[in-house]
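Predict structure. Input: N-acetylneuraminate synthase, 341 residues.
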Amino acid sequence: MKISFKENRSFIIAEAGVNHNGDIAIAKMLVDVAVDASVDAIKFQTFKSENLVTKSAPKANYQLETTGDGTQMEMLKKLELSLEDHIELKKYCEQKNILFLSTPFDLESVDLLEKIDIPFYKISSGDLTNTPMLKYIAKLNKTMIVSTGMANLSEVEQAVNAIKSCGNQDIILLHCTSNYPTKYEEVNLNAMNTLKNAFKLPVGYSDHTVGMEVPIAAVVMGAVVIEKHFTLDKKMEGPDHKVSLEPQELKNMVQSIRNVEVSFGNGIKECGEDEKKSKLVSRKSIVAKRDIKLGETITLEMLDFKRPEKGLPPSMVELVVGKKAIIDICKDELIEFNNIR
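Output follows.
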């Protein structure tokens, strides 16, 4: 399945990730929040902890801060969703008329997502250099949205080439900074267009900042996909809640993006229909600065330029100067071609 893009409308993915804390009831509540925010899709994460990390793999610093001591394995085991959970969640999303997505982190998880017929794939930044998995997914001939956090252009090129070598050209690259949270000075949003120019592919942005300003800016810069983490409550236990948007914030971000997109318009520079009323009261006309007698030759000193725009515009003053008044013209009266010659 290919993402259906509309002109000047980004595809917004609400990243639930593991913010369900392994609880299907919380996952469904996250679906409800995403639906209320009017996003295009909600995305979870699919993994088998044993396939993803070694038993001794340490936590990232932000994970230590949010979940305390221990290994990644211990943390991730609590956050897994079973096949039955996936089936139930996808069915719930279909009932709510929102697209269900999930990022696979191992080949077994790819197979799981294929069983439930996921429409397309999102690849995490951590798997950008996982060429075997990229090729495994590429052969499924579905759209691949690939995050590029932590990568340089050479690594992105290797990933793109690996995917294309399997005959899959349907790639979208997401600029991303894999810090949680990402400081504004670390975002480097201009790199999104570097990706676009380098690979001639659609680009988007996966955000890890604490606010919503950067995703909005990315849309202005041409992002076709926006991905943003969200949660029910930033104070919940778990690794990603703290850097996620709460429900009203997600809703505000989506509305702000849609407002910005509507503001793009058609690009034609013209006076809009609603502007015409403003034009009448804001623009000026050529008027008499003093009483002008019949037969007087019009000079610039006799003229003034005042609102509203009912007569000749000031831009036509040279066509008025030097003409003679053919009737008496009172102060502030419009100078028009029917009262001069």
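The first helix runs from residue 24 to 37.
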